[in-house]
Design brief:
The chain is mainly alpha-helical. It has one domain: Up-down Bundle (3 helical TM bundles of succinate and fumarate reductases), CATH 1.20.1300.10.
Length: 126
């Protein structure tokens, strides 16, 4: 009863039916672990920074360490979102043309959002 339904070649390659292995699964878990650290740091730091008003928040963002960690957090969140949305689209959108357009838009929106966040942080920090 322990017979596998996988072909011998599939066992050797270690790939699933999508031919991508577990890369998306692992990438989403790793980005979730990064967010598990970055989001609480960001929230606590933001609460502390906001106490100083607008100028305090600007000074907080202008510090090099904070600017880098903000960009890491935004990047990890957008990457995590992109992978999650890709899985949802691949699982629930049947038409290949619609699927391709949504996946392209998903990537485009994430890249644009990161570019806007990076521009804002660099402008404040610079």
């Amino acid at each position: 009863m322990s017979e596998s339904l996988r072909t011998p070649l599939g066992k050797v390659r270690g790939l699933g039916s999508a031919k991508h292995g577990a890369a998306h699964f692992i990438a989403q878990r790793v980005s979730a672990l990064a967010l598990l650290v970055l989001v609480p740091w960001f929230l606590v730091s933001l609460i502390i920074a906001v106490r100083g008003g607008y100028n305090g928040a600007i000074e907080w963002i202008a510090q090099p360490f904070n600017a880098v960690v903000i960009l890491l957090g935004v990047g990890a969140a957008l990457y995590h979102m992109r992978i999650g949305m890709q899985v949802v689209v691949e699982d629930y959108i049947a038409r290949s043309g619609t699927k391709a357009v949504i996946l392209i838009l998903n990537t485009f929106v994430c890249v644009v959002l990161f570019a806007v966040a990076a521009f804002a942080v660099v402008k404040i920090a610079g």
